[in-house]
Amino acid sequence: MRRILVTGATGQVGSELTPALRRRYGADHVVAAGHRTAPTSALREAGPFVVLDVRDAAALAEVVRRHEIDTIFHLAALLSAVAEADPPRAWEINMQGLVNVLEVARAHRCAVFFPSSIAAFGPETPLARTPQVTIQRPHTIYGVTKVAGELLCNYYHRHFGVDTRGVRYPGLISAVAKPGGGTTDYAVEIFYAANEGRVFTCPLKPDTALAMMYMDDALRAAIELMEADPARLTDRNAFNLAAMSFTPAEIAAAIKEQVPGFAMVYEIDPLRQGIAEGWPASLDDSAARQQWGWQPAYDLAATVREMLTRLAATSASRGER
Ligand code: SER
């Protein structure tokens, strides 16, 4: 990895992965690409930034050529709930975007990181300690694009020798960029409510368990996987990743231990509840552990501590508290 392109650099993962990559490989070696013209000034000023719509294959190829890119972290995508509102648009962005990335990677011999998700599974999948290889029949368009994306990455590796590597992320929790329209977003929003002293309205039922991960683990996983010895990687679609599993009731209780006045009410969103019921509560990540030494660092208690500390610090620096 000498010259890196990050698509979706202004999104939930990209806003933190881009600075992490810049710290590791040098700011000039990491080109951030976003569809928005107004990224955070930190992202724009800290290194090269280009406005790019991944649906535009010619523009993507031009960026890769001009910056002599050899590795693409392809993060641009719509999340589950917004994708459900406009399936053709989700297909175009999530699927055509990936096809464009894989084609440019084939032409320019780039390695590709593709984030799949717990959404690549469905109600017929065993949802506790979901195996690496199992039934994948998602009911969401987002999940359909993730399964197709995993298979496509495998295909490009097998047939064209493209160095594709991917993970199946659990719901991601971070104090930097909020997710936009996903199903696991509640586990981020809940911390903002707790930090601001607001009652949190939870869209999922109290006992809906989902696999989750703190962002620092997610970033480290992406970097460690891309640095792993390719000879050891036999799964070229996407590796299950595990860190923690909790229900809304459990995360609320963990927050209450730190913020005694915290209160939560439930107002179930049928769309998100339906989606969540088809997603794993936990994942078996032994393939990732064996093939590239994956090891999570944050459990629920550590995540709650970090999130509340970071959000309080952000509020304090803005003079809000
Ligand atoms: N966190 C995503 C979502 O909720 C799943 O990958 O849509």
Write the layout of secondary structure elements.
Layout: E1 4-7, H1 14-25, E2 30-34, H2 41-45, E3 49-51, H3 57-66, E4 71-74, H4 80-85, H5 87-108, E5 111-117, H6 141-160, E6 164-169, E7 171-173, H7 186-196, E8 200-202, E9 210-214, H8 215-227, E10 239-240, E11 244-246, H9 248-258, E12 264-266, H10 270-276, H11 286-292, H12 300-317
Parallel strand pairs: 1-2, 1-4, 2-3, 4-5, 5-6, 6-10, 7-9, 8-12
Antiparallel strand pairs: 9-11
Helix pairs in contact: 3-5, 5-6, 7-9, 7-12, 9-12
The structure holds serine.
Serine is lined by residues 79-80, 117, 119, 169, 171, 182-184.
Structural account:
The protein has two domains: 4-170 and 214-240, NAD(P)-binding Rossmann-like Domain (Rossmann fold), CATH 3.40.50.720; 173-211 and 244-281 and 298-317, UDP-galactose 4-epimerase, domain 1, CATH 3.90.25. Helix 3 packs parallel to helix 5 (87-108), helix 5 (87-108) runs parallel beside helix 6 (141-160) and helix 9 (248-258) crosses helix 12. It has helices spanning 14-25, 41-45, 57-66, 80-85, 87-108, 141-160, 186-196, 215-227, 248-258, 270-276, 286-292, 300-317, and strands spanning 4-7, 30-34, 49-51, 71-74, 111-117, 164-169, 171-173, 200-202, 210-214, 239-240, 244-246, 264-266. By secondary structure, the protein is an alpha/beta fold. A seven-stranded parallel β-sheet has the order 3-2-1-4-5-6-10, sandwiched between helices. Strands 7-9-11 form a three-stranded mixed β-sheet. A two-stranded parallel ribbon has the order 8-12. The chain has twelve helices and twelve strands. It starts with a strand and ends with a helix. Serine is lined by residues 79-80, 117, 119, 169, 171, 182-184.
